[in-house]
Amino acid sequence: MKEKFLSMAVLMAAVVSCSYAQSTAFGSTTAELVTPIAISKTTDMHFGTVAASGTLGTVVLDWADAVTPSGGASIPTGGVTPTTAVFHITGQGTSGFSIAIPGAPITLSNGAQTMTVSDFTCDEGSSANLIAGELDIYVGATLNVAANQAAGTYTKAGDMSGLFVTVNYN
What we know:
By secondary structure, the protein is mainly beta. It is built from 1 helix and 10 strands. It is elongated.
C-alpha cells in the first residue's frame, strides 16, 4: 500500500510541476500616424512674352523665374514676366518624400495652333525632405517654339495631361 501511495504522490508531483511550466507576459500595441502629405499650387508656370521667327527655337524657364531663349525664339522687352511653377508641400516634421513631374511633353493650345513644353525639371530632383513640416518646390521646363509660330496665348489647364506634381512619403 505504501508503494501505491508513493506512486500516487510521484504522479501528483509531476502533474503539479507541469502546471507551473508555462508563463504568460503581456505587451502593449501602438500605432503612430503621421500628418498626411499634401501639395498645393502656389504659382502657375508662365514663359512670359516670347517672339517667334522663321527658325524654330526654345525658351528654357529656370527655377528663379529666368528664361533663356535659343534658336529662333527671343524675349522682347516690356512683356509679361516669366514665372516658375511653385508648389507648397506640407506634412510631418522632416519626413522624406518622392516627387513626380511630367516625363513626357505637354501640349499648349491656342485654338487650332499648338506648341509643346518638355524637359520638366524640379529644383529638388526626385526626392526631398520637409523642413519643419513644409517645403516649396520649383518646376521649370522648356518651351518649344515652331518656326513662324502663330501669335496668341497658348495654355493647358492644370490636370494629369498637363503640368502636375505628385508627392509621396518615402
